[in-house]
């Protein structure tokens, strides 16, 4: 897949995570080589250039002699590789490598083409640096995690090869890649940037979109299970408000429910005037989530194509110190994704609670006959409540936090990396909630037989039934939840609401 630096689409980025190999178009080296030449001239003139012939952070006033410039970059990589925690997953590391290569290839970072080629070679060979997940505050770049990545380029650190973690030198040897000797600024350019937080946030975005589509399918199933009305999804309602996400969500719910015999059976004679909010207000809540995710997608696509290191070298040869490494846009985007993921799960949990309450659903208590002898979905709803509650705590904005670093030189930071990291746990919780709703809604629809739901929702029900039999009497619930959750995570139900 050939992608010009600065022009990657979200589809390109998702494909890279899934294993697609990145190539750059012919001629990409020219602006890169020009920036290297421009920096070399400034060094020859004896100027003090941050991170090139000075120390870093609070040590920027310390000049470094020309004989030590290469050692300066090497020391930077070694000292900054101070991450901790579990390793980032392979798809995220693939995306980090690609984002870093495309950023440097914009020609504003003064790194030689060989550095970019080495990053692309790692990606092509699926040699993935072992990067501890924690240790970045999302300002001055994702320094610690990018240092772990960069060590592999020089034959140090560790990398994942074929599922095993091996020394960096061994990983390069197996792939036939020569270790780099870093030139002026190259270590700094590799470490400075928002590629880790951006890749994590993009991974969270792609998962959140899948969960949202799944929740539209499970929510539509719950409408039929509770014999709810589709009037709240009438396009005239949503046109009068004009919120684009809301209009799209309502259309999706109409499409999912179209052709339901269950719905037709209670168009007349139903004494209920309005359904509870968890059914009736799905377009408003899910639509707001759609809009949040769309905005986050725009921010993250821009960031994925950006140059975010420091200092930058202009086409005219100027060296500019700035702050593009500050990941505040990513932090806000990740926080907004977290809000959407939390709300997707919270609304689904309320639908589960409705289905298990006979006063609201008209179904047997806890969706099982012979209640009392059987507890049915009683504790499955409790599990969903626990997961939804946990997500509420995790959704607290990380971007409002800041701790000064580097002896107060770096006195405001974004916490973007932590903001994006927590999306993994939140998505896992929401996938569990949606699995429980799919099981509960399938059980509820079963009580309306021989009436059928819509063709699309019957297909969703069939997917559930391939993993879990109807609940006739109490049995182990956890295996059923786990089996359906695996389907959720693979996007099996999200495919039924494509286009959102």
Overall description:
It catalyses: L-histidine = trans-urocanate + NH4(+). This protein has 500 residues and is mainly alpha-helical. The protein has 2 domains: 10-193, Fumarase/aspartase (N-terminal domain) (Fumarase C, Chain B, domain 1); 201-497, Fumarase/aspartase (Central domain) (Fumarase C, Chain A, domain 2). The chain contains 20 helices and 7 strands. The chain has a 3-stranded antiparallel sheet. A two-stranded antiparallel sheet has the order 1-3. A two-stranded antiparallel ribbon has the order 6-7.
CATH A-level architecture of the largest domain? Up-down Bundle
What is the spatial order of strands in the main beta sheet? Answer: 2-4-5
- CATH H-level name of the largest domain... which superfamily? Fumarase/aspartase (Central domain)
Count of helix runs:
20
Number of domains: 2
**The CATH class of the largest domain:** Mainly Alpha
Question: What form results from the Cα inertia axes?
Answer: elongated
What can be said about the biggest beta sheet?
3 strands, antiparallel
Strand content: under 5%
Low-confidence stretches: none
Structural class by SSE content: mainly alpha
User: Cα distance, first to last residue?
Assistant: 25 Å
What's the helical proportion of residues?
A: 55-70%
The tally of beta strands, per DSSP, is 7
**What is the N-to-C order of secondary-structure elements (H for helix, E for strand)?**
HHHEHHEEHEEHHHHHHHHEEHHHHHH
CATH topology of the largest domain, anyone?
Fumarase C, Chain A, domain 2
Q: Radius of gyration, Cα only, in angstroms?
A: 26 Å
The overall pLDDT average reads 93
């Amino acid at each position: 897949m050939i992608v010009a630096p600065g022009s990657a689409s979200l589809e390109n980025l998702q494909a890279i995570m899934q294993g697609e190999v990145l190539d750059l178009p012919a001629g990409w080296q020219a602006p890169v080589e020009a920036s290297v030449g421009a920096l070399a001239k400034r060094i020859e003139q004896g100027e003090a250039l941050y991170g090139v012939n000075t120390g870093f952070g609070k040590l920027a006033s310390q000049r470094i002699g020309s004989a030590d410039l290469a050692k300066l970059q090497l020391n930077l990589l070694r000292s900054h590789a101070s991450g901790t925690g579990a390793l980032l997953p392979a798809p995220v590391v693939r995306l980090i490598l690609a984002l870093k290569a495309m950023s440097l290839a914009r020609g504003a970072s003064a790194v030689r083409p060989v550095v970019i080629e080495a990053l692309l070679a790692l990606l092509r060979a699926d040699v993935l640096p072992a990067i501890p997940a924690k240790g970045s505050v999302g300002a001055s770049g994702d320094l610690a995690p990018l240092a772990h990545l960069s060590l592999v380029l020089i034959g140090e650190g560790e990398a994942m090869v074929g599922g095993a973690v091996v020394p960096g030198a061994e990983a390069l040897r197996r792939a036939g890649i020569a270790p780099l000797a870093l030139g002026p600024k190259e270590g700094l350019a590799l470490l400075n940037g928002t590629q880790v937080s951006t890749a994590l946030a993009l991974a969270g975005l792609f998962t959140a979109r899948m969960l949202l589509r799944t929740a539209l399918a499970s929510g539509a199933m719950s409408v039929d299970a509770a014999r709810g009305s589709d009037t709240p999804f009438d396009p005239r309602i949503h046109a009068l408000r004009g919120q684009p996400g809301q209009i799209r969500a309502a259309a999706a719910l109409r499409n999912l429910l179209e052709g339901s015999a269950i719905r037709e059976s209670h168009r007349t004679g139903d004494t209920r005037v309005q359904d509870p909010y968890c059914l009736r207000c799905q377009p408003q809540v899910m639509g707001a989530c759609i809009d949040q995710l769309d905005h986050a997608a725009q921010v993250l696509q821009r960031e994925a194509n950006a140059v975010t290191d420091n200092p930058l070298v202009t086409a005219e040869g100027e060296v500019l110190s700035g702050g593009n490494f500050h990941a505040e846009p990513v932090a806000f985007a990740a926080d907004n994704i977290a809000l959407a993921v939390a709300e997707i799960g919270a609304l689904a949990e309320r639908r589960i609670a409705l289905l298990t309450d006979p006063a609201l659903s008209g179904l047997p208590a806890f969706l099982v006959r012979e209640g009392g002898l059987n507890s049915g979905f009683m504790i499955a709803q409790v599990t969903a409540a626990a997961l939804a509650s946990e997500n509420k705590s995790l959704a607290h904005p990380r971007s409002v936090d800041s701790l000064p670093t580097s002896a107060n030189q770096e006195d405001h930071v974004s916490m973007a990396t932590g903001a994006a990291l927590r999306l993994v746990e939140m998505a896992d919780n929401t996938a569990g909630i949606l699995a429980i709703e799919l099981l509960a809604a399938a059980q509820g629809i079963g009580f309306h037989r021989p009436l059928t739901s819509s063709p699309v929702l019957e297909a969703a029900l069939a997917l559930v039934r391939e993993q879990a039999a109807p609940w006739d009497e109490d049995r182990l619930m956890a295996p059923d939840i786990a089996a359906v959750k695996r389907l959720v995570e693979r996007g099996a139900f999200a495919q039924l609401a494509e286009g959102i």
